[in-house]
Design brief:
This protein is α/β, with parallel strands linked by helices. It contains 4 helices and 6 strands; from the N terminus they run αββαββββαα. It has one domain: Double Stranded RNA Binding Domain, CATH 3.30.160. A hairpin with a 5-residue loop joins β5 and β6. α2 crosses α4. The longest helix is centred in the middle third of the chain and has 17 residues. The N and C termini lie far apart (50 Å).
Amino acid sequence: MKSLLLLGLLGILAACATTMQARSDFDPSQNFSRYRVFAWMEAEALIAPPGAAVSVSPLNRRRIVAAIESELGAKGFQKTSEREAADFVLSYTAGARDRIDVQAYPVPYRGLWHWGRPYFGSDVDVDMYREGTLAVDVFDGATHQPVWHGWATKRISEQDVKNAAQQIPLAVAAILKDFPPR
């Protein structure tokens, strides 16, 4: 019974650990209600640091652009290819990095689930994982200043990599959920 409870608890924790986290930040002095038309900042919408190798496949880059355009279209924004005519321009960044999560549990906090003979040290759990981030940046078309930044992070599993076509629209929808800010 204890092992069944432990497995259930671990399953719930694993599900929480792989949940996508999306957030945004914006310039509160900006009037977002005047935005109607958007364009991409550059012909290549993915922004990468100078000299950095782009790690996003061309297929996924196309999927990200299509998902962003679709999400903005569903919100009533229209795309134009003329940057000068756009109310706002946007770009995105994407990447992944290896992360390490270390948790130490002193003796009083180990709980009843401790296996084997007790000893008087600390339990240390080390978890290595890959974290992916997708970010969308919005710049005012007239002033060229950044006005909104949204991003999503998620622990990347092998299934996420295999199902990128399904994961990308979910990430974009989570990022753009609060755009434009009210």
